[in-house]
Amino acid sequence: MTDRADPVDRGLRAWRESGVPRNPEGWLYRVALNARRDVWKSAAARTSVAFDPEVHDEAGHEIPAEADPEALPDRRLELLTACAHPDIDPGVRPLLMLSAVMGLTGRQIASAMTLPAATVAARLTRAKKRIAATGLGFGSPDRLELEARLPDVCEAIYGAFAIDWVHSTSQPREGMIGEAIFLSGLLARLCPGDGESHGLAALVHLSAARFPARRGEGGAFVPLAEQDPEAWNTSLVTAGEHHLREVHRCGHVGRFGLEAGIQILHMTGVRRGETDWPMLLRLHDDLDRIAPSLGGSVARAAVLAEADGPAVALAALEALDSDDRRLTGFQPAWVLRAHLLTQLDRRDEATAAHRRALELTTDPAERDYLTRLPRSSA
Amino acid sequence: MRYSLIFHASEPGADGPAPSQDDIEEMMRLMDDYGQALASAGVFVAWEMLADQASTTTVTRRGGSVVIEDGPFAATKEALAGVVVIDVSDRDAALAWAERFPGTSYGTIEVRPAATSFVDGAWTRP
After folding, report:
1. B2-12+21-116 maps to which CATH number?
2. Residue to test with chain A: of B90, B92, B101, most A Cβ within 10 A
3. Global confidence as pTM
4. pLDDT at A65 over 80
5. Along chain B (126 residues), what's the average pLDDT of each consecutive run of 10 residues?
6. Largest CA distance in chain A
7. HSE-up of A297 (CA within 13 Å, CB side)?
């Protein structure tokens, strides 16, 4: 390696030699800072930008050369925002957050996400190089700019949580759940006035609360309606409910707030043995309007079946079908279709839909569950 | 109908440091889970993970007489690393399985339908 190695290489080399920095956020911040400083000093920067004392002096004020990263209370928010920068691959953003904000090692991240450690290391290295090369929003503590990027931050935290591959033999991945709980709680604390940050925290806490109840004996799949509320984690439910109240206090309900609202209505329904389907349908309608998704539309059709009957739901599902070609390979849509056709006593079609759903099911526990489902023809 | 999930990846150690023993064991565990999932779904036909390119020998008679050479047909950075053959209803189902293949975190899966398969001593068309 030559002396001309770029700052991140120097940082990474130091990292490799001296182990994980005790203060990884400071480390990453400093790498980005050094990169910026080097760009300002470089011949390319000097010759390509006309020197403007106002602009450049201003920049100098914004990023004091000896800034102490820990002295700034919002450094972690800035760091989260930088990690969720659009120039970084969405799949890598959660990894970077865990590394930069929580100080997890590559190996810890790898085991939490069940990725090979070498893969995680390579992705982190690439992303950190990218940050070092461009700065990616480091050193611009403009609160408005940070807040404009909050949706990306929420998305990345949720992405870490929602990775859905479940081991066939071992337990579902629990590693990431703790991290997502921490990150979403942190974000809500850093942005107490942002409804969506609380919405995300509520969604993550409420989903995580039900995690122990999702698998029964021998790892068998247990759907929400059949879960034992006693097995839900009470303190996570309480935290989720707190964040939901905060969503209301903020007066802004976004995608995550709505999904959290849907969660709590379902959970209350299971607890009481009676679900408020019309209210659920309203939340689903709102969700469909602001953040339409294939999964969301199918879930809405499932709620519609409870609120207005299987025929209405099937019509909605079929309307979706003609809109979206992807639906032909979307397993949840076939599971719902089989269920609705069974309720409507259209047995042959139900059997065909059920077979199709099974063909598209790759998770063994879910496959077992679907195979054991009582059928009208049985 | 039969689909081949054709897996290409860098040779171990060719692209950065070679994976550690822990990494290899972790990936073997994931691959094992995947194999069990294929088997329990009843779609499994065959799965070969291949030794590295260096242990390849190529045989051809393209030029007239038999030529046997050490090494692959074309040495590439991303080498053919394995083939999983599954029997599923259609492309959507094949893609659902390909997405689950653990190796996609460090390589690429090519999903290709069989044109015809030699099964139980005879050619069968899908």
Report:
1. 3.30.70.1060
2. B92
3. 0.73
4. no
5. 94 74 83 91 94 86 84 79 94 90 87 92 82
6. 82
7. 19
